[in-house]
Amino acid sequence: MTVKTNLMIAAASSLLLATGATAQTTAPAAPRTGAPTTAAPTAAAPGATTAAPQAAGAPAASTAAATTTIAAALPTLPNRATLTKLVTAAKLQTTLAGPGPYTLFAPSDEAFTRLPAGALDTLLKPESVPTLATIIKYHVVAGALTSEQLKAQITAGGGKATLTTLAGQPLVASLEANGNIALTDTAGIKSFVDTADIKETNGVVHLTNGMSVPKLG
Known about the structure:
Blueprint: H1 3-19, E1 25-26, E2 32-33, E3 42-43, H2 70-73, H3 81-89, H4 93-97, E4 102-107, H5 109-113, H6 119-123, H7 129-137, E5 140-142, H8 147-156, E6 160-164, E7 170-175, E8 181-184, E9 190-200, E10 203-208
Parallel strand pairs: 2-9, 4-10
Antiparallel strand pairs: 1-3, 4-5, 6-7, 7-8, 8-9, 9-10
């Protein structure tokens, strides 16, 4: 990794720590499961604390059978174009198209706009592939974990479940009072699952309103 890349990643991490920028999107009125809607997210002011989704009754689970892999499904998910581009740049399409199974916590496009100017471009450079791969892998857990299974692990763990990501670093899941799943990264910043249980042939995708930040060397 070049010195320039190190400096840019360090700057991005510092900004995320200072502003809570990993979860800047206001979540929908109720947690959802199954196929996501295409409604545009509502942006919060920079530096604002992200509000957890408000519970408003039990969502209906999707009964449609999965027909494609996580990698193939990514381009079809609303507001996930940036994540799709980053997965390709990190050369992780083969991984997410493999047998798995995997659980992917998929940040929204807006989550990545909170990075400092130029940081995203730097991550997309060939020399940044190892760093970018670590960031993307930090959003992937081995095994297909549905929202109910995650909640069961959280309950069994006394309110927290430590998930080991493909990056080899922990991501901590917890449950908000309104029933939504929160993810706390290595920096102690939370993002929230706003659409859960999008089931694919090799795992499950949970859409989140923020990116999670691993420790970067």
